[in-house]
Specification:
The complex is a heterodimer of chains A (about 220) and B (about 250). Chain A has a single domain (about 1-215), classed as Orthogonal Bundle (MetI-like fold), CATH 1.10.3720. Chain A is built from eight helices and two strands; from the N terminus they run ββαααααααα. Chain A has helices at about 10-45, 50-65, 65-80, 90-115, 115-125, 130-160, 170-185, 185-215; strands at about 1-5, 5. In chain A, α1 (about 10-45) packs across α4 and α7 (about 170-185) runs antiparallel to α8. A six-stranded mixed β-sheet of chain B has the order 7-8-9-3-10-11, sandwiched between helices. A five-stranded antiparallel β-sheet of chain B has the order 2-1-4-5-6. Chain B has helices spanning about 40-50, 80-85, 105-115, 120-135, 150-160, 180-195, 205-210, 230-235, 240-250, and strands spanning about 5-10, 15-25, 30-35, 55-60, 65-70, 75, 90, 165-170, 200, 215-220, 225-230. The radius of gyration of chain B is 18 Å and the shape is globular. Classes of the chains: A mainly alpha (about 220), B alpha/beta (about 250).
Chain lengths: ~220, ~250
């Protein structure tokens, strides 16, 4: 089947394969950037300026410059600085993880700040250690707070994977634009839209479910 | 003697909040601390429960030195001893501070298991006994957000009692409650007093203080102005500041 001379029976399997690449970037970014984001949040809250200030600068740099530029930087920068290069995929994941951890850091910082001081005080008088307080009492409440903002961020992530095309990672958008060039048609790019939309629908539904699951109590 | 403090002083920046508080609490005694807002009552409780650090003075809890003086400065015991001491005291907050992510029963079980290392089934049994005592057995699996303020405060009292504190402190336990709910909390405190629980209660409920306390302490401007039996303080105080405070209170 063809539309506008684009052979869909060839294009669709390619795009499905490229979607797997999107999903890989998506999950690897989540797995590394969320824990890293928590560390960033705690570092930002540190009362030691030597920890909190550099963290803030890191966040400023990675939130303040285009992710596309950061992808270039991790792809080509190491060669100029250290004389070696990461492979495309590694450079891509590094850029995404470090970029997203900066954003998650802010989201989690807000979530931690939203927990009333009384929670820490009650825990302290009951004899909980600081670690126990954080793990059992603060963290579960923070997670509930940050679910909506995190879902938002992850939907952005799905779309941001399209930026990886600039360092030739064979993800969905690159496959679509390549096909567009090959067949002199905009159809492949238009077809890419429902692919992104379906993936993000899954993210949206998943987060609605998590939100509902966390709804057994109110803060 | 369960608690002994000598000349406690505490400032927040330039504000001198506690200006030398010396206090003794005997086993089984119920002490009510009254006084105008900003007189340092809550700060005193917060210092005794390690939520604030004093600048000067000594504190001894159940014979263990928590704070001592080294020259002009207060010196705290090491963390191990401070932990040991914190387990001897309980604190009931004005705004309950229950853990919203835990059910009622888990609020009472969790610290028993995690802090004291009590076996879960025993902790559960104890929690149920306490809930029964608080008349809240049917709320065991509810979450704090589903309870009224008075019910939440009773859970908070049960949570504190579950760790078997030697002294229980109350920081205005009824101030955040609707007037019709204060009664249920006062009833619980009264029953604890009957069981000879040692308690120090900061309160604005004068009638209650008069009724339940063995000793009443009137604080104003960071010092203990007067201290005595309820009859002495409420009945026929000779102290002008106390008189003025109580008169102002009666007018309201």
């Amino acid at each position: 089947m063809t539309i506008d001379n684009v052979p869909l029976h060839l294009l669709i399997p390619d795009m499905l394969e490229a979607s797997v690449e999107v999903i890989k970037i998506f999950f690897l970014t989540i797995i590394f950037s969320i824990p890293l984001g928590f560390i960033v949040a705690l570092a930002r809250r540190s009362r030691f300026r030597i920890i909190s200030f550099p963290t803030r600068i890191y966040q400023l740099i990675f939130r303040g410059t285009p992710l596309m530029l950061q992808l270039f930087f991790f792809m080509y920068g190491p060669y100029y600085i250290f004389g070696f290069s990461f492979n495309r995929f590694t450079a891509c994941i590094l850029a995404f993880v470090i970029n997203y951890a900066a954003y998650f850091g802010e989201i989690f910082r807000g979530g931690i700040a939203a927990i009333p001081k009384g929670q820490y005080e009650a825990a302290k008088v009951l004899g909980y250690t600081k670690l126990q307080t954080f793990l059992h009492i603060i963290l579960p409440q923070v997670i509930k707070h940050v679910i909506p903002a995190t879902g938002n961020e992850l939907m952005t992530l799905v779309k941001d994977t399209s930026l990886a095309q600039v360092i030739s990672v064979p993800e969905l958008f690159r496959v679509a634009t390549n096909a567009g060039t090959r067949y002199f048609s905009s159809i492949p790019i238009i077809i890419a839209a429902p692919f992104y939309l379906i993936m993000n629908s899954v993210v949206e539904v998943t987060f609605k479910m998590i939100e509902k699951k966390m709804d057994y109590y109110k803060n | 003697m369960l608690l002994k403090t000598l000349n406690l002083q505490k400032s927040f920046g330039k504000t001198h909040v506690l200006k030398g508080i010396s206090l003794e609490v005997n086993e089984g005694e119920v002490i009510a601390i009254i006084g105008p807002s900003g007189s340092g009552k809550s700060t005193l409780l917060r210092c005794l429960t390690q939520l604030e650090r004093v600048d000067k003075g000594t504190i001894e809890v159940d014979g263990i030195q928590m704070v001592g003086m080294n020259g002009e400065k207060a010196v705290y015991a090491d963390n191990k001893i401070l932990h040991e001491i914190i387990l001897k005291v309980g604190l009931v907050f004005q705004n309950f501070n229950l853990f919203p992510n835990f059910s009622v029963i888990k609020n009472i079980i969790h610290a028993q298991v995690k802090v004291l290392g009590i076996e879960k089934s025993l902790a559960h049994k104890k929690a149920m006994e306490l809930l029964e005592k608080m008349n809240l057995k049917e709320k065991a699996t509810s979450y704090p957000c589903e309870l009224s303020g008075g019910q939440q405060q009773r859970v908070a009292i049960a949570r504190a009692l579950a760790l078997n504190p030697r002294i229980l402190f109350f920081d205005e336990p009824t101030s955040a409650l609707d007037p019709e709910l204060t009664g249920e909390i006062l009833k619980v405190i009264r029953s604890l007093a009957k069981e000879k629980m040692t308690m120090v209660i900061v309160t604005h409920e004068m009638a209650f203080a008069r009724d339940v306390a063995d000793r009443v302490i009137f604080m104003d401007d960071g010092v203990i102005v007067e201290e005595g039996t309820p009859e002495e303080v409420f009945g026929n105080t000779s102290n002008e500041r106390t008189k003025e405070f109580l008169q102002r209170f009666n007018q309201n």
